[in-house]
Design goal:
This is EamA family transporter. It is a multi-pass membrane protein. With 349 residues, the chain is mainly alpha-helical. It has one domain. 66% of the residues lie in helices and 2% in strands. It contains 14 helices and 2 strands. The chain has a two-stranded antiparallel ribbon with strand order 1-2. Helix 4 runs antiparallel to helix 8, helix 6 packs antiparallel against helix 7 and helix 6 packs parallel to helix 13.
């Protein structure tokens, strides 16, 4: 956590679950926010000075000034970076196979994470390795399938369909009518995509749905990985495993392209934009940002993907498709805001 002043009086409040779409590195226990007015002990200046805490970022004014950049902006930068990285990747698909590009992306992120974190590998149990291997498999499948979808349908539509996976997981098992309504709204959005039909292919939709299933698996396995691997160590090892799993297919489809300097450089650029920058921004932001707010911001990804497709690739969508994206974004925000707090939070309150 970032540096905070310790108040004399604090109050635990009920808050929603961390964003269910995020991995273990996003789901830290930042659930106990300080109340809005915190009286600090006198330190030689005025007695009883008041420090106001932002209800969005859960940080006081002096801390915010010390950090400089708002965590909300950091998350937004990460979102834009991911989707514009996808746009850059798609511009290469005419010359390089999507499998090769996604492998170069994974290579870049794995190298950066492994070198920066140097995770402990010795002394791990068999169950530790089974969990992180499953995590790596879901990571490989998620990235490979969404890039296959990008190659067949517009980026904004692919990400919108992919969001159905984590959104369904977020409300799975709930019997609340409101949660079912959010799923229904998202389903309506996907149905609207089919009504317009522009740029849609059955294979592209199927790969996007597969990516959504893999994303849901990634979320579940990331939580388990986070319980046995400290910090981002599990993500680093999983990235290396995902790279190894896709290596044979990438080498076969890439062939001589992997020896071309501009392909390697652009592949590394995609890795930086789609993995390194978002990981870094979100890691810093999540130290100071309320988890519920993070979840709402992440719900903007389909809209960011549509923008990236328009700006980078020149993908123009139809009116019904923009309405469909809006439906999924609103459903995601609604599902995030309406989730019940965990029992531990209620007990603490």
């Amino acid at each position: 956590m970032g540096p905070r002043e310790v108040p004399l009086t604090t109050e635990l409040v009920r808050c929603p679950d961390p964003q269910p779409f995020a991995g273990s590195d996003h789901q830290h226990g930042a659930c106990a926010h300080k109340r809005l007015l915190i009286r600090r002990p006198p330190t030689g200046g005025r007695s009883g000075a008041v420090s106001r805490v932002d209800p969005v970022t859960a940080e006081n004014s002096s801390s915010r000034l010390a950090h400089g950049v708002s965590p909300v902006w950091l998350v937004l930068v990460g979102i834009v970076s991911v989707q514009f990285g996808a746009g850059v990747a798609k511009t290469l698909f005419d010359d390089v196979a999507p499998t090769t590009i996604v492998w170069l992306r994974l290579v870049t992120s794995a190298l950066v994470l492994m070198l920066a974190l140097r995770p402990r590998l010795r002394g791990r149990s068999r169950s530790d390795w089974l969990v992180v291997i499953g995590f790596g498999l879901s990571l490989a499948l998620m990235n490979w399938s969404i890039y296959q979808s990008f190659a067949r349908i517009p980026i904004g539509l692919a990400v919108t369909i992919e969001f159905i996976g984590p959104l369904t997981l977020a409300v799975a098992g709930s019997r609340r009518l409101l949660d079912l309504a959010w799923v229904g709204l998202a389903g309506l959005g996907v149905a609207l995509l089919g009504l317009d039909g522009g740029g849609m292919t059955l294979a592209g939709v199927a790969f996007a749905l597969l990516a959504g299933v893999a994303w849901a698996g990634y979320i579940l396995l990331s939580a388990r990985t986070g319980r046995t691997w400290a910090g981002l160590d599990g993500l680093a090892v999983a990235s290396a495993i995902a790279t190894a799993l896709l290596a044979p297919a990438a080498l076969v489809t890439g062939g001589g392209d992997l020896l071309t300097p501009h392909v390697l450089l652009l592949g590394a650029l995609v890795g930086v934009l789609s993995s390194v920058v978002p990981y870094s921004c979100e890691l810093v932001a999540l130290r100071r940002l309320a988890p519920s707010v993070f979840g709402i911001l992440m719900s903007l990804e389909p809209a960011a993907a549509a923008l990236a497709g328009l700006v980078v690739v020149g993908e123009f969508l139809g009116p019904a498709q923009y309405v469909a994206i809006a439906c999924v974004v609103v459903a995601s925000i609604g599902a995030t805001r309406s989730r019940r707090p965990p029992a531990s939070a209620l007990a603490a309150a």
